Structure formats: C-alpha cells, structure tokens
Amino acid sequence: MIEFIAENLAPIMFLSLIVFLLLGYPVAFSLAANGLLFFVVGVELAPLSDSINLSWPLLNAMPERLWGVMSNDTLLAIPFFTFMGIVLERSGMAEDLLDTIGQLFGPIRGGLAYAVIFVGALLAATTGVVAASVIAMGLISLPIMLRYGYDRSIASGVIAASGTLAQIIPPSLVLIVLADQLGRSVGDMYAGALIPGLVLTGLYMAYILLMTFLKRDSMPALPLEARSLGSGVTSLAIALIVAAGFAYAAHVYLYPTHGENADILGATVGVAFIYIVALADKAFNINMMSRLAQQVIIVLIPPLALIFLVLGTIFLGIATPTEGGAMGAVGALAMAAAKGRLNMEVVRAALTSTTRLSAFVLFILIGARVFSLTFYGVNGHLWVEHLLVSMPGGETGFLIAVNVLVFFLAFFLDFFELAFIIVPLLAPAADKLGIDLIWFGVLLGINMQTSFMHPPFGFALFYLRSVAAKVPYLDRVTGKMTAPVTTGQIYWGAVPFVGIQILMVSLTILFPGMVMHYKGEGTGVDPATIKIEVPGFGSEGGLPGLGLPDDGGLGLPGGLQLPAGNPLEGGEKPAEGGADKPATDLSTPPSFN
Fold it and tell me: What pLDDT tens digit does each residue of the chain (593 aa) get?
C-alpha cells in the first residue's frame, strides 16, 4: 500500500486539492496547505519511488520563488486596471453611456438590449472588471427594461452576459494572468483576444435580433414619450461623415512626414474636431446638431479616447501593458474630475477595492507557488503532460478534453483560480503538441468566461441578483407596481448566453486566424529560396568565394604564410624564416620608424 501511494503521489495530491476546494476552504490556503502536507509525505516516501525528487533542502528555494512572484512587473498591470475601472464606474460613465445609447437604439425593437451589449463592450474595454460592469448595468438598465415590458429572463441574461465581456475584451485582467502563466507577452495576448471579443459581442447582438423575430413582444421599442433626446440620427450621420472627411484630409497631409502613423493621427484629428464642435454647439446653443447627436458625441468620445490611450499605445508598442494601465488610471481620474465627480470618497473606495483584489490575486499566486514546488517534485507535471498528450485524437482530442475539463471546473472555480491552478498544468502539454500558446490562452479565456455565467454558481449571476429587485416595488416614473426578478429567471436567462460562449469556443478552434493575426503578415519570403554567397578576398586563381590560392596548401597571402604541407598529413616543416624570406630577428624590439 505504501509503495502504491509513493508511485501515485502526483494524482493523489491533485485529487486531494479538489477535495480541499470542495470542502469550501479558501483557495490560496488550500493550495499552500496541500503543497506543504504532501511535501512532508513526499520526503518520507522518497526512498520508495524514483519519481519523487523531494528533500528538506528543497524548501530553501521557496523564498526565491515567492520573491519572483512579488517582483513580477507584469502583474503590476492588475491594480492599475482595477483602479481605472472602479474610478470610471464611480464617476457615472456607465450611467451616461447607457442613457445615451439607449436613446440612440430606443426606436427599434430590442433597442435597450442592443444598448446594454454595446455599453458592456465599451465598459469591458475601459474597466476590465466584470463586477463593476454587471452591477452598474443592473442598477441602471434593468429597471428601465422592466418598466417598458422586457422579458425578465432575456433582460437578466443580456445584462449578465454583457458584463462578462470584460473577461475577454482587452484590457481584461484574466488575459494578464494567462499571459503571465503561459510565459507570453501581454500585448500579444491582448492583440490575439481583440477579434474574438468583438465576434462574441456580435453573436450576442445576433441572438437579440433572432429573439425579436421569435418573441416579438419580449423586447418592445421605447415609446415616444420615453425618448427624451428626441430624434436626430440624420444629424449624427452627417457629423460622422464630416469627421471622416477631416480625418482623411489630415491623413493625406500628414502621410509624407509620418508614414503609416498618419492613419492614427488623421483619425485623432477628425475625432477631436467633431468633439470640439459638439462641445461648442452645446455651450453656445448654436443648434447646428440635434440634441441626440450632441449627446452621443460628447458621451462616447471620452471613453473611446481612454481606450486608445490604453490599448492603442500598447498595440503600437509605445507603452507596455503596465505603463498603459498607469496611463489609464490617470485618464480615469481626469475623466472623473472633468465630470465633477472626483472626490476623496471615490478615490478611497477605488483604492480599497484595488487593494483587496490585488491581495486576493497575490495570495492565490503564492499558494500556487507552494503547491507547484511539491507537485513538480513528485513529477506531477510529467504525469499531467503524459495524460494529456497520450489522449486519442492528438491535438484535436487534447483540445476537446481540455475545454470540457475547464468548462466543468468553471462550475466551482472562478477564473483566477483556474488560471493559477489549471493553466500551468496544461501549458507544457499544449506546447509539446505544437499549439501556439497565445491562441491556447485566448481559447481558455473564452471558455473560462463561462465561469461567470454558470447557473447556479456564476459570479455575474450573483452580482446581478444582489442589485435586482427581490420584492415588488413602485416604479418612480410610471407609478405602477412592478414585479420582482426571481433567481430562476436570472438563471434561465443566462443559459442561452452560456451556449453562445460555447459556440465561440468552437469557432475559435475552427478559425484560429481570429487569434493568430497577432503575429502579423510576415515577410512572405520562402526560406527555401534564400541563397547565401560569401564574397571572395580578392585573390585570383584561387578557391571560389574565399580567394584562397589553389596550391594544395594553406599559404594565405597577407602575412600568415602557412606551410604548403599540412603537418597533420605528413607535410614537411618549412625552413625557419620561409623559403624566400630571411628569418625574423627576435633578439631586438621592433622599430616603427
């Protein structure tokens, strides 16, 4: 029995960790306690098994491993992006966006649902925090959707799913953690995840469009009296055309001096121009634009500018993700100050939440380091790698098995726990199978997004449940008694969006180019056509290329004067000083006069 335990210590250790987690112990302490417990067991059983490489001196490596965690520059981006997201959420940006975009899409059936998805994508690209997005949209949009007759399940599902877009659209916190665990660049991970995130947003909107045909009364258009900004889509379209014209003119003017960067600079000029015009039109009551066009431009451009400040500088290589996060945090403070909503209470709340989340991540990472020290010492990584690589179906079988595993583990673990526990075990096997780790990381990120939507343990569902009405209430606008949203309605509303996320996992596997574009187009040169020619030394009649004399020896010109015969092949040793040149007198120092 003891020999069996010694030979199978790795799988026993892994199963014990699952038991610890199912018993409800905190993840960080479960990891650390499991690692230390099995370290003691492994040291005692080491003489019985060649697969156990543990000894007491190995604990001396732990301080250096923990210092590696605390000195990791990549993880510094997490507190910056968290702080940025919470400041923006407290500054009222989400409220302004939802109100304005809701007015823009209001005249069409399902318009509020489209607005929630659109704003969810914008919040994801500016905050990167799921909790902030779901809570903000639940507080602001859910009462409005219920007021105007939206189906409760669809409304709940749209809000919860749109909030989880912060999981996959950069600057997502989980993408930072995945990049760190996979040993890849955060910038590459962001670039790879951008298109899948936008495609997933489009799939959400396609589902809403489908439901407006299948259940026409489930998402009615806003009534005319609810559209406080009136009409004015034509005015907005004209303003966008004018902005595009200015952007193109600026591009043509700047291209000779700035080259490829003229595209971005020209777009910046066009956006800045139309924003200044909208501000002037509103401030001086010129009435050049409709109220709707004014509000859309004034509300949308600041968060879009912040997105460019963060993601644009990262993608252009101007800033690292950590530097981009720092600029985003400063930009969030500036936006809150511009709205007159920056005060010590906002800063204090943001710093408190940021410290709490950063400490949570750090403790899990430290626990994972303790666990991995023992797990690697019992060759657990080799056990997992062999188990996954030897699966039938090769790469396809591996991907199916891994995604099924992550999907079911997401019922019980959140994305941080999955990233720190499971990903380090899967990465070596994926790398051995030749799978690109950026693509693999984005695929896992999309899959782990379902951890927020799984009934009954999805965190996004918990966040929405905390702000949705639990008892009947009197609507402050209509004055009518409104029924509450039940937990069952929230859960059933999430199910279709979990299916959409699984569909997105399949699309990412079938169309890897959505992620692999991060590598760029390359040079297009076929390595087989490359021919290297070494130029000659100027000697004529010698060996081709090197210009060596063709006299059967190595008598190189220029002072080397090696012997014609090779001593290793029995060649004769030349006479001292050479055949035609007197021997050099070494008894006196040389003269350079």
Answer: 787 777 778 888 888 888 887 787 888 888 888 888 888 888 888 777 777 777 888 888 788 877 877 777 777 888 888 888 788 777 777 778 878 888 888 788 888 889 889 888 888 877 666 777 788 788 878 888 888 888 889 989 999 898 888 888 888 888 888 888 888 888 889 889 989 999 999 999 999 999 988 888 888 888 777 677 667 788 888 988 999 998 999 988 888 888 777 887 888 888 889 999 888 988 888 888 888 888 888 888 888 888 888 887 777 778 888 888 888 888 888 888 888 888 888 888 888 888 888 888 888 888 888 888 888 888 877 787 777 777 777 788 888 888 888 888 777 777 777 888 888 888 888 888 888 999 999 999 898 888 778 777 777 888 888 888 888 877 776 777 888 888 888 889 889 999 999 999 999 998 988 888 877 654 444 555 555 655 554 444 444 444 445 444 444 444 444 454 444 444 454 554 444 555 555 555 555 55
What contacts 440, CB < 8 A, 6 or more positions away? 182, 426, 427, 430
3-state secondary structure 202-242: HHHHHHHHHHHHHCCCCCCCCCHHHCCCCCCHHHHHHHHHH
Q: Partners of 482 in the beta sheet?
A: 473
**Contact partners, residue 59, CB within 8 Å, separation at least 6:** 39
CA–CA gap between residue 553 and residue 560 (Å, rounded): 12
Report the C-alpha gap between 230 and 222 in whole angstroms: 12
DSSP state at residue 481: E
Distance from C-alpha of 420 to C-alpha of 176, rounded to nearest angstrom: 12
Q: How many CB atoms lie within 10 A of CB 400?
A: 13
Cα 312 → chain centroid: 14
Cα separation values, 337 from 135, 346, 351, 401, Å = 22, 11, 17, 49
CA–CA separation, 375 vs 523, rounded Å?
A: 43
Nearest to 146 by CA among 492, 455, 469: 469
d(CA 151, CA 78): 37
C-alpha count within 13 angstroms, C-beta hemisphere, residue 522: 7
Q: How many residues are given for the chain?
A: 593
Ramachandran bin of 589, using left for φ above 0, alpha for ψ from -120 to 50, beta for the remaining angles: beta
DSSP for 444-476, please give it.
Answer: HHHHHGGGGT-TTT-HHHHHHHHHS-SS-EE-T
DSSP string of 151-183, one letter each residue: -HHHHHHHHHHHHGGGGTSSS-HHHHHHHHHHT
CA-to-CA distance for 120 and 98, rounded, in angstroms?
Answer: 9
Quick one: which H or E segment has residue 64? Answer: helix 62-70
Cα–Cα nearest to 505, from 454, 431, 450: 450
Q: What is the DSSP string of 306-367?
A: HHIIIIIHHHTTSS-HHHHHHHHHHHHHHHHHHTT---HHHHHHHHHHHHHHHHHHHHHHHH
Write out the two tokens for 282: 């509103």
Q: Is 581 exposed, middle or buried, given 0-12, 13-18 or 19+ CB atoms closer than 10 A? A: exposed
Determine contact, residues 238/268, Cβ cutoff 8 Å: no
**CB-based contact 338:298 (threshold 8 Å):** no
